[in-house]
Amino acid sequence: MHALLAQARMEVRLTLRSGEGLLVTLVIPTALLVFFALLGLAPNEYARPVDFLLPSMLALAVISIGLVSLSIRTAYERHYGVLKRLGATPLGRGRLIVAKIASVVTIELLQTVLLVAVALTFGWRPTGSALLAVAVLLLGTATFASLGLLIAGAVRAETTLALSNGLYLLLILLGGIAWPVEHLPGPLALLGLLLPSNALASALRSVLSPVPAVPLAQIAALVLWTVLFLAIARRTFRWE
What does the UniProt entry say about where the protein is found (predicted)? Predict the structure, then answer.
């Protein structure tokens, strides 16, 4: 446990020391929340834009750390032989992965506090079920961390960099983050409906609405995506 906690603290420090990591994990979701809130961009069915934007940016924060930051950092650690060496220490490979996931959850806690604080300044008031929201965020974390590790362990570091950033942009535009998928044109709406980001963002909107509902369909979709990503990662992840 001591080795696990020490590695988790190091993973958090490495993320916070990285300018690129801070940009993706903390700056971009917060900046987009402020930008869209100032413009008042949100579907008409929401009384206040921030009621739509906060769940969207919470989902984006999960994607930022779980997919982009985790995958790129892990891929370059594999490229430079760090994963191989750490896996051979008493820490072991299993606890190394757990430490990485623990660091992701820690950064997400910081992201959530920051986003909620900004949302409060734009008139957002807590509604819905906080417990359900936490459960959905943890499930979304499992989904996108699994995808991040899958990419990091299967392709070259340079390819991981391009693929993760490309997926990040796709999920923002078509995955229910910037705008609900039902407002997109037909083929794009169908594509967006299938993306895990849409399931996460829609689930968060459901549980944070004034009349919260358990989003069973979205939860089932996230579980299926997580199982799929883990199954593929188990077969394709290479430590060196």
Answer: Cell membrane; Membrane
In the numeric block, the tokens 């990662």 are attached to 233
Q: How far apart are CA 114 and CA 167, in angstroms?
A: 24
Distance CA 172, CA 59 (A): 10
Which residue from 119, 175, 173 is spatially nearest to 143, judged by alpha carbons? 175
pTM of the model: 0.91
CA torsion 230→234→108→49, rounded to 10°? -30
Cβ-based neighbours of 92, under 8 Å, separated by 6 or more = none
* Spatial distance between the Cα atoms of 217 and 228, rounded to a whole number of angstroms: 17
Q: Convert the pLDDT of each residue in 40-81 to its tens digit.
A: 877 777 778 888 899 999 999 999 999 999 999 999 988 898
- Domain residues for 151? 2-236
Q: Which residue has the tokens 């008409």?
A: 44
**Number of structural domains found in the chain:** 1
What Rg, from alpha-carbon coordinates, does the chain have? 18
Answer for the pair 145, 70: CB distance below 8 angstroms, yes or no.
yes
**Taking a C-beta distance cutoff of 8 angstroms, is the pair 29, 108 a contact?**
no
Tokens of 147: 């995808």
Q: Return d(Cα 175, Cα 192) in angstroms, integer.
A: 5
Distance CA 143, CA 84 (A): 24
